[in-house]
Specification:
Elements: E1 7-11, E2 14-18, H1 31-45, H2 54-68, H3 77-86, H4 90-95, H5 100-126, E3 135-137, H6 149-188, H7 191-200, H8 202-207, H9 212-229, H10 232-247, E4 252-254, H11 256-267, E5 275-280, E6 283-289, H12 294-298, E7 306-312, E8 318-319, H13 325-332, E9 339-345, E10 356-361, E11 373-381, E12 384-392, E13 398-399, E14 410-411, H14 412-424, E15 430-434, H15 443-450, E16 457-464, E17 467-473, E18 484-488, H16 495-505, E19 510-513, E20 522-528, E21 538-547, E22 563-564, H17 600-615, H18 618-634, E23 638-640, H19 643-653, H20 679-683, H21 690-707, H22 721-733
């Protein structure tokens, strides 16, 4: 299985093959110790305590194959059959410290990849028939591997043609944009504006230095170069991480080098462009943007976008497809004030038919910019004026590094307490608590913050091992008693879900937003694989799960809103359910607690009023139609390989991008006209945020409902075990 590989070398303007041997990799000096320790640690430390078994080994193999061949185009069906047969002995091999199987698979992967690159280069030489009426199924995560070489060749012919046509279309779209900019500059006859437009076009010009053929050649040259540059630590780390993730998607093995880079990946949210990245389908995917960061302020980069190339100021772009994430992160990061050019496949067009170039000036995200903040808004409904507060919380942060002398450490709970105390002096009528895009953070701050809105009672149940413990608010004090609306979306996760669920269960808040929140209801701990030898790496392992006080888990299902307001993330593949090897939904016994009131009838009234109002709102109906069109675009599984058909499709899709021109703002976005406006004012602005505006209207509906003598507050009946059992049965049947 170990063979010489052909590698690509750049000769002049073209590429040629050199039959130089590539290094055959094998287990490193500590591989046996790492393997044995991991096999022992995972069943012991993971909350499921699942023993290592043949079934776990099958999941490990599936994870490993997915990490190598995500679109099932490199290996053949016979290869997979052979791997699955060998996996029967995998448990015994790992327990003995033998990782040779992982390296055998990787060496065959390199061999198959080199063969495919030869086909790509040959196809580029032969050219393409751009008028053929054929399509390419680009979504291949669950496709079958090619049964024979003929099917394999045809798959790669279409795959390469798909990339080629996509680059041609992107080139044409950039040309159209440049012509529009030039026409606009001529019409305005503004020399300064013309210079600015020209500067903005530098990135586009750079992207066209290479022809589509040369871009593809260079991309695959880099693919093989990166592939051959991997060392033993990379391969065994990839395989052992696949084993950790066989337990659940949030557990992972960190090799010594990846452990060292762990802080780099995490701190990307605090420097550079202000984005949390994950690796998906060979690209660096935007998981979340940080409030106050350069990318969030710019507004063009969105969660779900995939970065496939990066260019530094004045330099050619570097393709980062197939790169390890930590290397991509290092390339994207840079000095404050420098500009990075990101080549991005937008989340709204996952087929890759259009590649955007987004230039962002790197900056440091100061804690103050991502800290909690409030704004009091004078909101007029009919003839009535209301004084409403909006509380924006991007993260549940706890930054102890700022402590100096007697100064208290900075935390989200302390900041929110101070802001609520300030609001108490302003006599507001109610508040909207915005937790959209809040990915969680400090559990302690989350529990303490929840207590600000209730007198006393439990907040969350945490189950680790076989023990369930409750965390709650013990102080008997309430800082805010007025009507409270909580905004959530599919990027609201972990601590955000705990707070929203607790206040919903206590009958203290009306939750408004996407069909569900993210659904991350688990806790991870980072620990050395072996305390006696730090050189073996570390284990990030799931040790507990969160449960609502009514007994239901937030895992997988998240938190369902009382009032659903559709958003773009509702139609995109965002949430725990789209991840691999997710923990199932489950339940524990409900707790005894005294809810503030039963809001079921109130919520029904508020839902009806909101639906009626939005049905007559032209802007919101236009917004919903755009979401429908976005759903059609995201769910598209095939793309045309005819150049004209693809161009027509791309031009039609661009209608979707005219939201801002038509006056409809997608929540979380930023309009170009306001880029230079005061940042703090823009962060909480219902004029540019339809969901926030409706949240304020719902808040007013609740205030009026109380004033009109709505139903008397009454404690809801305690959750019944038979209702939870029925929900478990429905989940199992689903």
């Amino acid at each position: 299985m170990r063979r010489f590989l052909a590698i690509i070398t750049l000769l002049g303007a073209g590429l040629a093959w050199s039959q130089e041997p590539a290094e055959n990799l094998g287990p490193g000096p500590k591989a046996a110790d790492i393997s044995k320790n991991l096999v022992e640690a995972l069943p012991r430390e993971h909350m499921s305590h699942e023993p290592v078994s043949e079934g776990l080994m099958r999941r490990t193999l599936d994870n490993y194959l997915r990490s190598l061949d995500y679109d099932r185009s490199i290996f053949l069906a016979d290869d997979i059959l052979s791997f699955r047969k060998q996996a029967a002995d995998l448990q015994a091999q790992l327990e003995a410290g033998d990782l040779s199987f992982a390296f055998d698979v990787f060496e065959l992967y390199k061999e198959r990849a080199a063969d495919r690159v030869e086909k790509v280069l040959a196809q580029l030489e032969a050219g393409f028939e751009l008028e053929n009426d054929e399509t390419y199924i680009w979504k291949r995560k669950d496709a079958s591997w090619a049964e024979d070489e003929a099917a394999w060749d045809d798959l790669w012919r279409k795959k390469t043609k798909h990339e080629y046509v996509g680059l041609l279309v992107s080139q044409e779209l950039r040309k159209i944009d440049a012509e529009k900019k030039a026409a606009k500059a001529d019409a305005e006859s503004d020399a300064e504006a013309t210079a600015e437009e020209a500067a903005e076009g530098d990135a586009e010009k750079k992207a066209e230095v290479l022809s589509p053929e040369d871009r593809i050649r260079k991309r695959y040259e880099q693919f093989v170069t990166v592939l051959n540059s991997h060392d033993s630590e990379y391969v065994q780390g990839l395989f052992l991480n696949s084993m950790a993730q066989a337990y659940d998607t949030h557990s992972s093995y960190l090799s010594p080098r990846n452990e060292e880079d762990f802080d780099i990946n995490m701190k990307l949210s605090l420097t550079g462009i202000g984005a949390i990245l994950t690796s998906e389908e060979g690209a660096a995917k935007i998981e979340r943007l940080m409030k106050g960061g350069p990318a969030q302020r710019d507004g063009r980069l969105q969660p779900g976008d995939k970065i496939i190339a990066v260019a530094q100021e004045g330099e050619d772009p570097v393709d980062i497809l197939y790169w390890p994430l930590y290397k991509s992160v290092r390339l994207i990061r840079g000095e404050k004030g420098s500009t990075v050019y990101l080549h991005v496949i937008p989340a709204r067009d996952p087929t890759g038919s259009e590649v955007e170039i987004i230039d962002i000036v790197r900056d440091e995200i100061k804690l103050e910019e991502k800290a909690a903040k409030t704004k009091v808004i004078d909101w007029k409904v009919g003839e009535e004026d209301y004084k409403l507060a909006v509380l924006l919380l991007p993260d549940f942060y706890a930054d102890f590094s700022e402590k100096t002398g007697e100064e208290e450490p900075r935390s989200s709970s302390a900041d929110v307490r101070r802001l609520l105390e300030e609001l108490d002096t302003q006599d507001v009528d109610g508040m909207v608590f915005d937790l959209r895009n809040n990915g969680g953070g400090s559990l302690r701050d989350c529990v303490e913050m929840t207590g600000y809105f209730i007198d006393r009672g439990p907040v969350v149940q945490v189950k680790s091992e076989q023990r369930v413990r409750a965390l709650g608010d013990p102080d008997g004090k309430t800082l805010f008693k007025k009507p409270l609306v909580i905004l959530v979306n599919r990027l609201s996760a972990s601590a955000s879900e705990i707070l929203a669920a607790a206040l919903q269960d206590h009958g203290r808040a009306v939750v408004v937003g996407d069909m569900k929140t993210h659904g991350k209801g688990s806790v991870q701990s980072l620990m050395p694989l072996n305390n006696a030898d730090p050189g073996l790496g570390a284990l990030k392992v799931t040790t507990a799960k969160f449960y609502r006080i009514d007994g239901r888990s937030t895992q997988l299902k998240g938190v369902s809103p009382d009032i659903h307001l559709r958003s773009p993330s509702d139609v995109m593949e965002m949430g725990e359910e789209y991840l691999d090897n997710v923990l199932p939904w489950s339940w524990v016994a409900p707790m005894r607690y005294a809810p503030v009131e039963d809001l079921r009838e109130t919520n029904e009234v508020l839902r009806e009023k909101s639906a009626a109002r939005l049905a007559d709102d032209e802007e919101f109906q236009k917004y919903l139609k755009q979401i429908d069109r976005l759903a059609e675009r995201v769910n598209r599984r095939e793309v045309p390989l005819s150049y004209q058909a693809r161009l027509d499709q791309a031009l039609a899709d661009r209608e979707l991008d005219r939201l801002r021109e038509e006056g409809v703002s997608i929540p979380g976005g930023a309009d170009e006209e306001e880029e230079n406006a005061d940042e703090e004012e823009n962060e909480i602005d219902p004029e540019d945020d339809l969901i926030l505006a409706e949240g304020l209207n719902i808040l007013v509906d609740w205030i009026e409902h109380k004033e009109e003598g709505g139903e008397e507050p009454q404690a809801p009946a305690e959750p019944k075990l038979d209702e939870l059992i029925q929900e478990v049965q429905q989940q199992q049947e689903g």
